[in-house]
């Protein structure tokens, strides 16, 4: 049975799996799967709470659209682009968190890392071809999710 709250050890393994698969993806395809930590974090979120993963997906779409609109009015490139996209994602995710926490206080327990994930994915969508980026992010996340879930179900993941 999958635990309702993941232990810190399982979370560390999930992030490590995501990093490993992200690196392999980047080295073989030269595509970043939404950032190096993103697939591991998404896999952990899928294991723990599918609704939260859907919210992150929605905020990612809003962040991407906001970035495209911003680029029509502001010159964004390099570090400025990265900072603008991630900051936009954080602001949108924080807004959603505040609004949702009023209605569903337990939905957002402790997800600070999740605040930057929509911005990281949107940043890669702006920099790289959209289709291959989405495919890379989805594939690497799925690989990390399958290995993580199998390890949890088989009881080989570390516990507290």
Account of the protein in words:
This protein has 160 residues and is an all-alpha fold. The chain has one domain. The chain has 6 helices and no strands. α3 packs across α5 and α5 runs antiparallel to α6. The longest helix is centred in the middle third of the chain and has 26 residues. 36% of the residues are buried.
**Largest sheet report:** none
N- to C-terminal separation? 16 Å
Give start-end ranges of low-pLDDT stretches.
none
Number of helices: 6
Element order, helices and strands?
A: HHHHHH
By secondary-structure content and strand pairing, the structural class works out as: mainly alpha
Average pLDDT confidence is: 88
Strands, total number: 0
Strand and helix map with partners:
Layout: H1 8-29, H2 38-48, H3 50-71, H4 78-103, H5 117-127, H6 130-154
Helix pairs in contact: 1-2, 1-6, 2-3, 2-6, 3-4, 3-5, 4-5, 5-6
């Amino acid at each position: 049975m999958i635990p309702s709250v993941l232990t810190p050890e399982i979370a560390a393994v999930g992030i490590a799996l995501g990093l490993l698969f992200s690196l392999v993806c980047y080295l073989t395809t030269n595509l970043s799967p939404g950032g190096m930590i993103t697939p591991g974090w998404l896999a952990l979120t899928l294991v723990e709470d599918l609704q939260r993963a859907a919210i992150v997906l929605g905020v990612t779409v809003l962040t991407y659209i906001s970035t495209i609109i911003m680029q029509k009015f502001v010159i964004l490139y390099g570090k400025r682009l990265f900072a603008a996209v991630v900051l936009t994602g954080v602001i949108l995710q924080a807004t959603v968190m505040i609004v949702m926490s009023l209605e569903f206080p337990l939905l957002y327990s402790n997800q600070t890392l999740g605040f930057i994930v929509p911005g990281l994915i949107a940043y890669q969508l702006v920099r790289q071809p959209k289709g291959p980026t989405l495919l890379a992010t989805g594939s690497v996340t799925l690989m990390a999710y399958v290995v993580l879930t199998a390890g949890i179900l088989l009881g080989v993941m570390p516990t507290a």
